[in-house]
Each structure stands twice: as structure tokens, then as C-alpha cells.
Amino acid sequence: MTLQTAGIHHITAFAGDPQQNVDFYAGVLGLRLVKKTINFDAPEVYHLYFGNEAGSPGTIITFFPWPGSRKGRIGGGQVGITTYAVPPGSLGFWEERLQAFGISVVKEARFGEEYIRFSDHEGLRLELVERREGENSRWSFGGIPTGKAIKGFGGAVLFSFNPVRTMQVLEQVLGMKKAGEDAGYARFQAAGELGNRIDVPIASMGWGAGGAGTIHHIAWRAKDFEEHEQWRRSVADSGFKPTPIIDRQYFNAVYFREEGGILFEIATDPPGFANDESPDKLGEKLMLPEWFEPKRAEIEANLLPIQVRVLQEGES
Fold this sequence. Notes:
With 316 residues, the chain is of the alpha+beta class. The chain contains 5 helices and 16 strands.
């Protein structure tokens, strides 16, 4: 039997200025900064995680903000649009909030749903859709009540260089079910309540280029460490070349690139972000894996200071 992912675990993107990154995702969108750490492969760069109050799988967007980094180009081989789910009846609130911060929005409809689409300060494409599924976030920040707050991912739009092959991976490897086609997209449904609807433009997309304002990879959920090992074997048996299992402190990870050019990861739900700090203190301190602790002073000296702050309308 094919394994079935519950949906998106997290999405990771490139960014530039770290304070602007925090201001947008915490200050404007009201997400919680649940982890402040470093890129384990490039410790001079932050790795920032934003999500709901606990950083639950299906809510987490992460960034590598590198000051002065080149601007990317959104295109094939990337997640083209990140979709967030908000409670029913809250799109009007979000349209007004975004416009108050000087962020232009465009409305779109597909699969019988209305979306408002916008971009962050570096051009990363985002959209909001109302969904009943999934628990409401219990995190309230910057004047956003919990009844309007972003729940987590509604899904994502995958820009593929080879959409036929990408769609085959979604169905045959990740165990999603095709839900239909509309407005030039094919939709695939995962088993969970968040991050569960993946849309793929049916037309092939020209190649994008990595850099600030683009997605590095999308991660899919494995429920535990045992299932994660099964996922790795399944990916290999499907003809891909997965990496070894990598310990990322807050989840274990396996990566592979599907034939539409998109870097996929499979990540475990456990152990989560309270692995090294208490739930009420998430994101307050720079957390380092033990092998970097001897270099803490050097690492901190190379990072620009950041703070989560309430923004006034017109700031972003």
C-alpha cells in the first residue's frame, strides 16, 4: 500500500534582510516566531521559523535571510505560491489589513474558492483562502484576533518544468488523490486538515532561479521516525535518490528532487520546537545545536540583531 502524507510539514524560502523578514511574517501576518536558529550548513545565516503558537506541522514557513543576497526569479522547479488558510468570514479583514500596510492584493477564484493573492516585501508570492478544516491558531499578535488569525497552510501551488511527472509523484509516491481540474490547474488532496490541497498548473513553467523571494524546498509530513524510514525506502524504490536521514533538531529530514525540478523533503512530525526550549519561550533565544555551542559568541557577532515588534499600519 502506498504511504499517504498528511500534507505539507513546512516550506523553506530565501530572504534578504532578517529584520524585514520578521516584520512581515510576525508583524504583518501575525505568525509566531517559534524558532531562531542558524543554517546548520552556513552558520553565518539565520534560520527563522514562523508558525502557529506551537509551530505545528502544517503551519511552518522558514527562511534563510541573507543580507545582500541576490534576488531570485519565481518559475519552474519551485513552489510558486504559498497558500495560507484563514477562518471562514475573515478574508475581508485580511484584505483591509494588507491594504492598510500598503500591500496590494489581487482576487482569484479556482475550485469554487476565493483567494486573495499578494507578495511579501521581496516578491515571494502568497495567498489566503478561507477554510473550515483545521484548528484555529491560538496565537494573537499585532491586533489580529485568534478568530481571524492564519491557521496554517491551505496548501501550495507547484510550478513544474514537467507537470505530468510532478503530478505522478504527488499521486504515486506521496499518496495524494487527484481532486479535479479547474482554471488551468490540477488539484491533489492529502489526508490532513492543513497543507492538504496542492495545485499544479497544467502547463509547463519555464525555469526559475533561486534567490531572495523564492522557495528553496517544500517538506511533506511523516507521522513518526519509523514511518520516516519507510518513506525513504519508498522514495528510493520509486527511482529517486533520497539523501540519508538528516537530524534537523526539530524533525528528521530526507530530501529528493522530483522530475519537475522541485526539491522535496519528507520531515517527521516529532520532536517539534519545544525540543530545546519551553513552549512559552519559543523563538526568544538564539538556539544552536550542541556542536555549534563552543562558537556561540562568534556566531552571534556575525548575525544582525532582530526583534519581533508590533507594527503600525503603513509599515511593512
